[in-house]
Amino acid sequence: MLTDPNPGEINPPLPAVLLVPCTSVGDLSNRYRSPLYKTSARAGVLSTTGHSTNFIMAVLLPTNISEDVWITRGCALLTQLSN
C-alpha cells in the first residue's frame, strides 16, 4: 500500500511488483495511477503519442489516501535515480 515515507527517506524503494496484463482493470477507487519514468529527469522529448520519451507507463498502486494528494506531492516511480 502506498503511504508516506519514513522520516529522512528521500527515495524509498518499491517492493517487487508483478505486472499481469489484463483487458480491464475494474474498480479504480483506492488506486493511484503513478507514472513510471526511466530517470529522475521527468522531462523528455515529446513523442508522437504526446508522452515524454522518459515516460514508461502508469502503475496502479493501492492507497487509502486520495489520488489528489499524491498528484499534488508529485509522487512518481523511477527506474533509476540519476541520469
From TrEMBL:
<dbReference type="GO" id="GO:0007018">
    <property type="term" value="P:microtubule-based movement"/>
</dbReference>
<feature type="domain" description="Dynein heavy chain C-terminal">
    <location>
        <begin position="1"/>
        <end position="79"/>
    </location>
</feature>
<dbReference type="InterPro" id="IPR043160">
    <property type="entry name" value="Dynein_C_barrel"/>
</dbReference>
<dbReference type="Pfam" id="PF18199">
    <property type="entry name" value="Dynein_C"/>
</dbReference>
<dbReference type="GO" id="GO:0030286">
    <property type="term" value="C:dynein complex"/>
</dbReference>
<protein>
    <submittedName>
        <fullName>Dynein axonemal heavy chain 6-like</fullName>
    </submittedName>
</protein>
<dbReference type="InterPro" id="IPR041228">
    <property type="entry name" value="Dynein_C"/>
</dbReference>
<dbReference type="GO" id="GO:0045505">
    <property type="term" value="F:dynein intermediate chain binding"/>
</dbReference>
<dbReference type="GO" id="GO:0051959">
    <property type="term" value="F:dynein light intermediate chain binding"/>
</dbReference>
<dbReference type="InterPro" id="IPR026983">
    <property type="entry name" value="DHC"/>
</dbReference>
